[in-house]
Amino acid sequence: MSTRLGFNRRLHLQHQREDLERLACEYEPPLSLLNGRYNHRWMRKGETLAIESAVCALYLRGSPIGGRAPRRAWPRVVARLCSAEPTLDQLGTCLLIAGLYDEASLLGDPGAIEWGLQQVESDRTVTVVSPTYPSRWLQALGSAAPPALWRFGTLPLAPAVGVAGGRQLSARELRAAAGIGAALMALGRTLVSGGASGADRAAAAGAIACGTEPRVIEILPCGVDMCSLLEGACSLSASAPDAEFSTGQAMERNALIYAYGTHTVVIRPRYRVGGTWHGATDALRRDLSVVGVWGRGADAASEALTALGAVRVPRVRDLAGFLATSPPQLQPWLFGAGVVRERSASPGWLLHA
Q1: Residues β-bridged to residue 161
Q2: Separation between Cα atoms, residue 252 and residue 125, nearest integer Å
Q3: pLDDT digits over 167-191, tens only?
């Protein structure tokens, strides 16, 4: 089993390197042209410390910089930092030489880099250069993927399946949500939900109650200090720790849930009302994942989502068949994000100057 898990981890890292490389190439020419050198190695933790500190200082919400860094330019920033591998005191100069003047100036703010370093060393964050960063976000969201998030707990690497649903569920629907969570654990998957009451927490509770080591991720629509974190789950938040719930953050959270894995199960949507409906229709429109609607009912919301391309999942025992459905072709460039190219013949990490 350990050998298999080791292979899956190496495969995950290899795919993540390829995706980051292709995304970075949309923002600047191949850096290997500077000296004809192409480096395939994955940087070790000590080598990414300065880079992660810069990413946290620039893009982690709640930083002293306060969101002033141009967010969509992060692939170019990360590409340049990974190519140069600067030390902490070289970060600003590295970006300045590359023409990234805004980012270089922001890193010169008193205490900015030190704050980023403190967050990385506290092991409460995940950045785009972390080995556990969800690589599918790069494929599905492109430059719209968050370069840094707050994290509490260990991120599982098993393939992920999202679960989204309403807050007001019947007893039967709550049992179904818990059954879906338990079934995902039995299938060796990671459950990703939004941490809300109702379907989200019922599915997470069903997964945790299995008794084995649970693989549960909750992506929060608010700051980590503003809600109750679920024991046994890994919590992620793209918001500042003291940020209260907002509709905009909830919409961003929904996209992250659907884009985390190739499949998402929706429980009890309401027709044209609420976050479950809007999250599902947005995911179908953008082809973020295969969307499955649980149940055999003929309600208007389920019928409409099916007409838009969702797949019916009549019973919990049909979950394995649903997960065998081929995922959609990802097209983030249609929605303003950086283009993600097809896999190259020569995979590798970000190009090094």
Answers
A1: 191, 263
A2: 18
A3: 999 999 999 999 999 999 999 999 9
The closest alpha carbon to 174, from 182, 92, 73, 32, belongs to 182
User: Residue type at 4?
Assistant: R
Sign of CA dihedral 93, 94, 98, 102: negative
Strand partners, 218: 193, 235
Alpha helices (H) in 191-246, listed in sequence order: 199-208
Instruction: Tell me which residue of 154, 226, 173 sits closest to 195, measured CA to CA.
Output: 226
Residue type, 260: Y
The β-bridge relationship of strands 234-237 and 148-152 is: antiparallel
- Check: CB of residue 220 under 8 Å from CB of residue 190: no
Which ranges of the chain does DSSP label H, i.e. alpha helix?
2-24, 45-59, 74-84, 91-97, 101-107, 112-121, 135-141, 171-186, 199-208, 247-260, 274-286, 300-307, 319-323
**What type of residue is 84?**
A
- For the record, the structure tokens of 5 come out as 């898990």
pLDDT at 333: 52
The pTM for the full model equals 0.83
Average model confidence (pLDDT) for the chain? 84
User: What gap in Å lies between CA 82 and CA 227, rounded to an integer?
Assistant: 35
The tokens of 171 are what?
């007893």
